[in-house]
User: What shape does this take?
Amino acid sequence: MKAALIFLVTAMAAGQSPDCSAVPGSVQDGKAREYDSETLYEYMNGNSEGYFLYGFSKMRGVTCKLGGVSFVVDVSEFKSAELAYGMFTGNIDPRLPAEKIAAGGQVTPRKVIFVKGQYFGEIAAEPDGDHTAALRAGALALARRLPGSVEPPAALGWFPKEKLQAGSPRLVPQSVLGLRMLQRGYLALYEQGKAFIVTEESEQAAKALMAKLKERFIPSGPVAGLEDGFITEDRYLGRMCIFRKGSRVAGWTNIPAGLEPAEQGKRLAASMP
Assistant: This one.
């Protein structure tokens, strides 16, 4: 048991600190890197805000050389697997296909990103060229060494699939729909508007949030069959239906003419657990 525990700890430590074994035949170029929330800004040339929005904790990285190509390997740890996945979906190109690398990945000719558990991995290649095969192989090798789940957040399955746009749903780390009271949640874009789900800490907290929403958007009528459900209209969010389901507050906004807001709300509620 002790030997197994030592092996597990060693494997986890190795998985969290990338080395050039992810790129076979390469050699390390320079020292390994490590950054936290105080030092990431300098490494990212000021572009670290996106990492902080998703609960960044630390980053470890290394640069590997293979022939005339440099592979910059970085693994960032986030406060939860959900937030790490949010970082991943916030960085993918919805016009390009995703791949099954751990919980999710996307490969382009010069960069690969992936997510596994609380870890978000990136490998970038220099100079310009098609490095797709090497990047994919490196990401798969690195992902195998990282601890954590290879399953995406369950909330992604709570939205209807019909007419869902590419790249949706995704985690919005703050101000869902541009509303501060919707602090963090999932947003899905459809051909017929937007759907959102925000999970509160308790049913009471969800009820309190619904009360605030009713103050912000004066209901034009209730919706039978939906907890605290109401329909309303807003200058920016258009026609909408908002409701509560246990500790979750959800709704459908920007509903075009010809569709009933109440029916769109019920459609979303039916897909939620």
